[in-house]
Design goal:
Helix content: under 10%
Largest sheet: 5 strands, antiparallel
Distance between the termini: 41 Å
Radius of gyration: 17 Å
Order of helices and strands: EEEEEEEEEEEEEEEEEEEEEEEEE
Number of helices: 0
Shape: globular
CATH class: Mainly Beta
Structural class: mainly beta
CATH topology: Neuraminidase
CATH architecture: 6 Propeller
Length: about 290
């Protein structure tokens, strides 16, 4: 590990379960799932804005036309941060509430939103990954998952990487960006085989095409080569519940890591966002929802 790496908590927010970070317009957007809150953080000043959502919110992405697209207990919805107004766009698992809710999600390079659900009662295979296109059409993309989590795309949008957390596997799906379709996946890496503590949660990709994965219950983020499955780098975080990560900052060279509060451990900065500096690699721009 680069000896010049620094890891620092930023902002004042202590989330019960921080998740879903995405860097947009010089700010880090993320959610506190169990705190029912959407947060916008200025990493440079530490200034924060909060919106109480009235439900568990699993993820957030910006909308090209303004405002946000969110997903949580009540499905997928548009949110206006000025008025506080919500407009539901899709709710495919309403019949499974409260056991299922939307969890992690991001937009593909064409601005379609990919969001998946989680069985909070850990019913194996009872959750799914969906895609919402700019016209508002929802389609089922990967069925039979349990805890839909990290998702990202390679630079030329020919591969989609995806995590169903309990499997401990990172999968690669051949991807057709023109229509948002996938083919049969192949295994990138099994974090159990790599002997990593915890389970793979949120994920992002860097400018060299390498994957960064937050290991929930493992207190670390790791860098993995998706071509070979090799573990390239490990950065330990002083908080065991490391949930997700996203590159940001002026040069996209800071890795922001969301965290949660462990049920029994007393950790000084648990629930805060950590900024990792000095990685010598940067990220790629995020994508907004085009609908």
């Amino acid at each position: 590990m680069n000896k010049d790496i620094t890891i620092s908590p930023i902002g004042s927010r202590v989330s019960k379960w921080g998740e879903g970070p995405i860097f947009w317009n010089d700010h880090l957007l993320y959610v506190d799932i169990e705190g029912h809150t959407l947060i916008r953080l200025n990493p440079e000043s530490g200034d924060e804005e909060f919106w109480e959502m009235g439900e568990r919110i699993g993820t957030v992405v910006p909308r090209r036309k303004g405002g946000f697209l969110c997903a949580g207990d009540s499905g997928i919805y548009a949110f206006d941060p000025v008025t506080g107004g919500k407009a539901n766009l899709a709710d495919p698992e309403a019949d499974k509430r409260p056991d299922n809710r939307f969890n992690d999600g991001k937009c593909d390079p064409s601005g379609r939103f990919w969001g998946g659900t989680i069985s909070t009662v850990k019913k194996t295979g009872d959750a799914n990954l969906y895609m919402l296109d700019a016209k508002g059409n929802l389609s089922l993309k990967v069925g039979g998952v349990t805890n839909s989590n990290g998702i990202c795309w390679n630079a030329d949008a020919t591969v989609m990487y995806y995590i169903d957390t309990p499997t401990k596997k990172i999968m690669a799906y051949p991807f057709d960006n023109s229509v948002g379709s996938t083919l049969k996946p192949s295994l990138v890496a099994d974090t159990g085989v790599l002997d990593l503590d915890g389970s793979p949660d949120g994920m992002t990709i860097d400018s060299e095409g390498m994957l960064w994965v937050a290991m929930c219950h493992g207190g670390m983020v790791v860098r993995i080569n998706p071509n070979s499955g090799e573990l390239l780098q490990r950065v330990d975080i002083p908080c065991v519940e490391t949930t997700a990560c996203a590159f940001g900052g002026d040069n996209l060279n800071r890795l922001f890591v969301t965290t949660g509060v462990h049920k029994s451990l007393n950790e000084a900065d648990a629930g805060k966002v950590f900024a990792i500096d000095g990685l010598e690699v940067g990220g790629v721009p995020s994508f907004a929802f085009e609908g």
